[in-house]
Write a structure and sequence with these properties.
Distance between the termini: 59 Å
Oligomer: single chain
Number of helices: 4
Helix content: 55-70%
Radius of gyration: 19 Å
Number of strands: 0
Structural class: mainly alpha
Bound molecules: fe (ii) ion
């Protein structure tokens, strides 16, 4: 490689790093869709669930919707900053088959397990982004670490809910 003494590095914006940039954009697109689908699933569950015990879960999911939407916005903005295009709805394909409405809307455990699975999927993908942007794109890495932290805390919260149900022999 040529020495960059005469032209300082612009990191991920360097034309020499085009391939890296496209790879990061692809990872961000997947993250964006994961957030959008999570908004759909949590919105439905936060309305659908029935019963006295469901109220806490519904409120928690309701708060999460705003947070997940803000994640989607941040991923979208970063795609744009990297000269990518935020995809349109035609490119969407659903993956959260485990988080479809249960047969009985009082089946809170089904929703709790689904949320834990969705958060786990996000944690795995964002951990991959953090790893793949190491030394490549520190700004995307930094942003994703913040979002990863949110997902870890969501997952921990719902694990606590599940533990309570398991303790009571309902799950
Ligand atoms: Fe999220
Ligand atoms: Fe989350």
């Amino acid at each position: 490689m040529e020495t960059s003494a005469s032209s300082p590095s612009k990191g991920i914006f360097d034309s020499a790093n085009l391939e890296d940039r496209e790879r990061v954009i692809e990872l961000l697109r997947r993250a964006y869709w994961m957030e959008i689908e999570t908004v759909m699933s949590y919105l439905a569950a936060s309305v659908n669930l029935d019963g006295v015990r469901a109220q806490e879960i519904k409120e928690s999911l309701s708060e999460d919707i705003d947070e997940e939407l803000s994640h989607a916005k941040r991923f979208a903005e970063r795609i744009k900053e990297l000269y990518g295009v935020v995809p349109g709805s035609d490119a969407f394909s659903a993956e959260q088959h485990f988080l479809q409405p249960p047969d009985e809307q009082t089946d809170i455990v089904h929703v709790i397990r689904g949320v834990i699975k969705a958060e786990t999927g996000a944690i795995e993908h964002y951990t991959r982004i953090v790893e793949e942007t190491e030394g490549v794109d520190p700004v995307t890495q930094d942003m994703t670490i913040g979002i990863l932290h949110d997902e870890q805390s969501h997952r921990r919260l719902f694990e606590g809910f599940l533990r309570e149900y398991e303790f009571e022999g309902i799950a």
